[in-house]
Every structure is written in C-alpha cells, then in structure tokens.
Write a structure and sequence with these properties.
Helices cover 52% and strands 16% of the residues. The protein has 27 helices and 23 strands. The strands form three sheets. Strands 1, 2, 3, 4, 5, 6, 7, 8, 9, 10, 11 and 12 form a twelve-stranded mixed sheet that branches. A six-stranded mixed barrel has the order 15-16-21-18-20-19. It is an alpha+beta fold.
Length: 866
Amino acid sequence: MKRRKRMLEEIEQDIRDHIERETQDNIVRGMPPDEARYAALRKFGNVARVQEDTREVWAFIWLDQLLQDVRYGFRLLRRSPLFALVAIFTLAIGIGANTAIFTVVHAILLQPLPYPNSDRLAIIWSGLGDELRAPASEYELLQFREHSRLFDQIGGIWVRNSIVPGEGEPEQVKLGVVTDNFLSLLCAKPALGRLFTPQDVLADKQDTLIISYGLWQRRFGGDRGIIGRALRVGEGEVTVVGVLPQDFRLIFPDDSSVPPNVDLFLPLGFASAKPDGPSYLRSVGRLRPGANFAQAQSEFDEIATQLRRTVPAFDDQKLSLHVVPLQDDDVRNVRRTLLLLFAGVAFVLLISCANVANLLLARSSYRQRETTVRLAIGAPRRRIIRQLLTESIVLGLTGGVVAIGVGWLTLKGLLALRPESLLRLGSIQIDPTVFAYTLAISVLTGIVFGVAPAFSASRVDLRGALTTGGRIAGTRGKLSRAVLIAAEVALSFILLAGTGLLVRTFLAVLDVNPGFQSDQVLTFTTSPGDYNFVHQVQQKLLAIPGVQSASIVSHLPLDDSYPNWYDSYYLEGAAPSDQNSLLADDRSILPGYFQTIGATLIEGRDFTDADDATRQHVAIIDDALAKQNWPGQDPLGRRLNISDSPKGFYQFERDWVVVVGVVKHVQYHSLTTMVRPQIYVPFQLAPRPVSFVLRANAPLASLAEPIRTAVSQVDKSAPVARLITLDELVKQARAQNKFAAFLAGALAATALFLASIGIAGVTAFSIAQRTNEIGIRMALGASPGEVLRMILGQNLRPVVGGLLVGLCVSFAVTPLMQTLLFGVEPSDPLTFVSISAFLFSVGILACYLPALRATHIEPIIALRYE
C-alpha cells in the first residue's frame, strides 16, 4: 500500500510540474496568470483520464481497480440500508436453500462411500425370472469366486437377529453372518484385534467373533481385554478376535435387508453350498484395478450362462446376474428426488436473481446522473460495466455470507424431517466442499443478476442525458423488468405444478388400503424360539387386560428391518420347466394373525393349533395368488408345492400343502406396489424368527411393561425389542412421499413469496416513475377505476406471459417425475388448471395493491412530482 501511495503521489507531482512549466511558458509569452493556467490545462487534457491511463500500465492495476470497486460497493450498500437489506435477504433465501440441498446431494450422491477403493465396489444381484434383485446362494457365491477374473475379492453377508452376549439385561441386536473376506472389503483395519481370515472358516468352524465399536463401549465398557474373551452367542461359545472402527457402518441398498448398524459378525462356513441350497446372501465384490463395471457385467453374463447350463433349476428360473456399482445402487431410490429438489432450489435462486436484478434496474435509473458524469469525464464503458458487476458480486457475496446461516438452519430442518431411506445413507454436514460451493454460487449469482443492470446503465445516450440532467426515460429498462417478471412467474409455475403433483400423490397414498387395519396394533420382536415358546408367550399376552387378540408373523407389514423370505412354488401337474418360475412371499404365522392385524379372510378358514407337521400340511394364500393361478375358480382344496422347514430352523425342504383359506393381499413391501403374492403357513411348518402382534383396546404405551413381564415369565433370557405400533410402520412407509411433498411445497411457497414481492415491487416502481403522467390523466378527467384498469392491464401482461411459458415448460418436464407419482398423471389437467388460477390470482393481488395506492394520488401533487 505504501508503494502504491508513493507511485500515485509521483504521478500527481509529475502532472503538476508539467502544468506548472506550461503555465510559466504561457506567462512568458504575455498571458495573464489565470489565462495562462487555463491554457496549460486545456493543452494537457483530462487530468483524471491521464492518471487513469498511467495507472493502467502498472502490473497489478486490475487488483487496484478491483479493490477500489469493492470498497465503493460496500459504501453504496451502507448508503442504501433498505435496498441492501431487501437484496441480501432475497439472495440469502435463494443461496441458503441451494447450500442446504447441495449439502445433502454432496453427502449422498457425490461423496464416495467410506470404504477402501469404494469406486470399485459392486453389489451382485441374482435375477430369477422377473425378480432381478434376489440374493445369492452359497453355491452361487462360490461360483462367482471361482470363475470371476475381474474381481479381486467377492464376499457375502446375511443379517439376522441375535441376543447380545455379556452381562446385564437381555438385548436384541443384529448379527451379520459374513464370508471371511467381507469385512476386509469394507474396512481397512479394525480398531482393535484383527478381521476374519480363511482359517476362521476351516472345516465349517465358526468359533470367532467380531463386534462393533458401539457394542464394545456400551456392553463391555471399552475394555481392551475383550480380545480373546469367550462369549456365548446362540448355542455355542465364540472368541472375540476384533473390534470394528467407531465410524464403521454398512451402507447398502434399502431392499437388501442389510441394516447400517450390525453389532456382531460371525464367519460363514458354506455348509449349504449345494445347487439347491437357499438363496440368502448379499454379494459384494471389488473390481481389480483397470477393470470396469461394463466388463464385469459381460463376465457375469457368461457365468450366469454357465450356471444355467450346468444346473437345471437355474435354467428353469432363468437365472441372470447383475453387477451394479454399490454407491449407485445405494442411492437409486432417492437420486431422482434429490436431483428434482436440486433443480427446484436452482429455480428459487433464479427467482431471487430476477428480483435483485429488478431492484438494480430500478436503482440504476436513480444512478443515471452518476453514470453520465463518469462517461462525460472520459471513463470507458467497460470500466463502468466492470464496476457495476463488482458491486453486484459484492452484494452476492454478502448474501452468501448470510446464506451460510440460512443454509445451516434449513439443513437442520431437513435432517429432522428426513425419512428412513435417507438416514441410512451416511452423515450429512456442511464441510469445506459445501463452503466452496456457496462461495462459487454467490459469485455466479452476483454476475447473473448484475449483467442486465450493468449493461443497461452503461448504454447511455450521453448527449441526451446531459440535456435532461442525467435522467433518461426509455423502454429498454421497462422491457427488461417485464422479461424478468415473466421469468419469475414461469419458474414459480413449474415449481407449483411439481408441488401440486407431489401433494396429490401423498393424498393418494393416504387413501391406499394396505390390506390391514393399523390402529391399536402393537408389535415387538424377541429371540427366536420353538413352537412351545411362541405359543406360551401368545397365551400370556392374551391374558393381559385390554389385549383383544395376539399372534405372530415372520415378517411385519411395511417393515424392512428383517430379510424378506420368498421362494418358488408350483401347482399340481406343472411341467419341470415351470416348477421354478412362480415366486411368492413366504409368511409363517400362528392362528389369530389375520384377526389381530385386521386383514380380511375372504373364504376358507384360519389356522388352528392342530395344523402341525403331523397332520395334513396346509397353507393360506392371498387373493393375488388365487387370481393368478385359478381365475374364476375356487382355490380351496388345491395343492401347492412350496419350500418349508417342518424339521426345524432353516432346514428347508420341498413340500405339498393344501389351500384352506384365501386372505386379501397385504402390502408388506410398499403402500403403492404389489411386489409378489403371498403364501402363509403355520409356524409349526416353518419355524423362523418372528414378531408378535397384538390388538388392544387399552393405551398401547401402557402395555410395554406387561409385555416384558409376560415374555420373561416364559424365558428370562428373551429380550423384548423394537416395540412399535403398526400405525408407526405405516407412517414410515409414507415418509418419503411426505418428505418430497413437504420440501416441494416449501420451495414453491418460497418461490411464490419472492415472485409476489417482485411483481409488487416492479408495479410500485413503474407507478412511481409515472406519477406525473397519472396526475395529468386524472387532471384531464380520468377516473380512479380507469387508472386502476390501465395499471393492472399493463403490469399483468408479463404475468400472463410467464403463466403461458410456465404451462408449456411444465408439460415438458413433469414426466421426469413419473417414478415419484402415484394415483396422478404427470399432465394432470386439474393440477395445471388449479395452479394457473392460483398463480394468476396471486399476480392480480400483487399488482392490485400498488395500483390501488396510485388511484389515491392527488393530481396537484402529482403534477409537481419530480
């Protein structure tokens, strides 16, 4: 700064010396002193221009000028506090919303998964006919390992419930049964001890255990002596060999039945590695360096062909294999929602830019004198444009600083409202990348809203401006403001149209009949037990005052916390090629289940306690399976071949069962999609981990302690976990639709608010500019009604234009929302007509209030208005 000041002083001194010498020369020639100095100045030229030209040859003149413009921009903001407050508030809303949504998009879509070489991780799905996202069997996984040359490792996992080892109250946790290399695929090194090795699964030996950091802390107090300790898990003892890192979590697709928090890990011994073994493993592999997913897919197409050729059952099932990047698969259900929301906040930001641009256009008319004077004394137009753009960027950056706070508050609200599908996808927080994005978008925003005012202000007819005192009236500014208003209305229309469709979707989801009555039904899980255990607990629950009915089911409706069971079935007389092509969800229940959840038994009977493995094996089917196989016929008494396990847990075998009842289809996976038909069998034929359900006429919260007492009376070591109402499960199923509708509504309301302010502001400014004209009209006899109609007619034209543009664009873009909609078409006429009428009404109101004030202008005062 000192060097710059010294150089400026030297330039000024040189100019003074030059003028002084010329003045002395003129005096010597006989001129009076005043006339001599004037002649010297006239000969030298524009002093300010010479100073400017001299400074431009400096190496860092651009930085010097930038700093001048920045300081001048801040001075202008201080001189116009109301303008600064409105503009910064408008920008903070737009930039803050973008910051919040970008934080979510960055964390979920852009940031790599927290695993080593995560960009090379793939999930491998088996396809069985039309079911393209099925788990693999142990036999399939071994074939993947043997025949793949593009993956350096392929592992698998299956998650089930277990009782936490150690002292204290019984606690139910998730236990992952994994291949020896699964954890090393996702974890660089443990916090303590080691990961599994191939030796841990030799000779089907499963006597080692790895635990999570959270379980280590809460159950064992962070004791470092946990390594080597023997614990009892299930029926045997295992030795703890490792503790996973504190931040380790499983990030898998929401339909994979792999929850993020698993506390226990046991090694998988491949005891069922037979071609006809059960399919239950989720397979994950890591590509070798240099390989890509397209090549891996081609390789697995060949592996699938080989398996179909060698195993008839795979050929009957039309086995296919699908290699998908793990991160892409994780976010497939939320990607479109997030991208549409990101587009929505971009629209809000553009509306904010249009509003601030209109403010600057209005402000530029009052700064016309300043611009005229600067041009008159020799400032180049590019210098004027650069200064005005710098002022706009200063304004944008100031709005960006405030937007950080707005974005943080918005993000806190998003995190509080986000559904389960987003909870599992990683931590979301404002980090340096988000700050860099906010900085970049603040600068870009300043340029966007500053371009039109800067060029408009610099394009001045200098002679005309000087003759009119620096005030130029023209149509260019009016046209620019009209275009910006039309753009605001069009963008608002698009947001409102999308919001209307999402709100109607949510209302349609509310009206869906899930196939059961969720009110006054409480559910919980406990440790797996045999028939005697679950039957005794059922009887204890029925004895609790206020409990009307109680039963069990292997899979609760709309609950994805436990792996879904489904398998192939076939009818009597089916050809061998048709015996693996039909799939149905398998459900294990006790008598009274349908009555408890309020499902409708259409025909036939419920199970009884006598329907055990020693008698005729029976099943109940849903109406979807009945219509699929016996349309227009009576399904009762028909026989089905299914897979059950009457000899014990997971001891599967093919079995013939007789249909004794038909129940209305229950929505187990989604409120809006029928995934598969359902087959119900008695618990005695398919013992599995279960959830209890009970219906009561007492407050459900008051039943927690009686339930724990009832379970402990049967088995003191059995925990009572995940006490949750069926109403809450239904609420969670609606959460993503509700979340999308709420966010879209918030964005649309913000856009509507900003657009209304913009329309009202432009109308008020145009009235202020035409105050003199309005006074003349009223003095000549124009009535207030005529003035009102004139102003409304002129200011509603851009609103109507924006509506038409928004309508056309909405018809083109709403089909992109097809996957998010239910019960409504993307081009729904009712939605578009309603939005058009609503937005036009808002436009009328925004124009009407300023126009109404114009009708109260006194003609005498208006004629004197400057």
